[in-house]
Design goal:
11% helix; Porin; 8 strands; 165 residues; mainly beta
């Protein structure tokens, strides 16, 4: 019975996916990523963050990013706030990917990072940082995807939901 149910669910997903029209990344697309970050740089913990980009070319998008995390340990608390700008190159055309549900990208950014360590210092580690990221989106609907990025700007791994409009 479990095999039958699993087979039915998989077939239903393929049927629904095949009825929707997907379009690969292109100029003019607006992309919003919202998710959680694991392993905030230098401090561990879990954070919340996102990015918004606009397509300026069929393979290039530019925009903003932001993220926040806080962690306590042995009576001390620190937090990291990151805001900045970023750009991405989308590899689908270059790699000749025919499956339009995938969007593979990588890019660079520049961000201001405020690290507040409440246990000993009022403010510690403020400054501008050069960022790099590599990631991918899997669109299960034409305008909704799951995404994951490495080196997203405020954490080692950033994953969540992406929207294209």
């Amino acid at each position: 019975m479990k095999k039958f149910f699993l087979t039915f669910v998989v077939m239903a997903m393929f049927t629904l996916a095949s009825q929707s029209a997907f379009a690969q990344y292109e100029k003019g697309d607006k992309l919003l990523n919202v998710g959680i970050g694991l392993g905030t740089y230098g401090y561990g913990g879990i954070g919340l963050g996102g990015s918004f980009e606009v397509g300026v070319h069929d393979a290039i998008s530019v925009g903003a990013l932001g993220g926040y995390s806080s962690r306590g340990y042995l009576g001390y608390r620190w937090s990291v706030l990151t805001i900045g700008a970023r750009g991405s190159y989308h590899f689908n055309e270059l790699l000749n990917l025919n499956d339009e549900r995938f969007d593979l990208y990588a890019g660079l950014g520049l961000a201001y990072r405020n690290i507040n360590y409440g246990g000993i210092y009022d403010s510690y580690g403020d400054g501008v940082s050069l960022l790099a990221h590599i990631g991918g989106r899997y669109y299960f609907k034409p305008s909704t995807a799951l995404f994951a990025e490495l080196g997203s700007g405020f954490s080692v791994l950033h994953a969540g939901v992406a929207f294209k409009f």
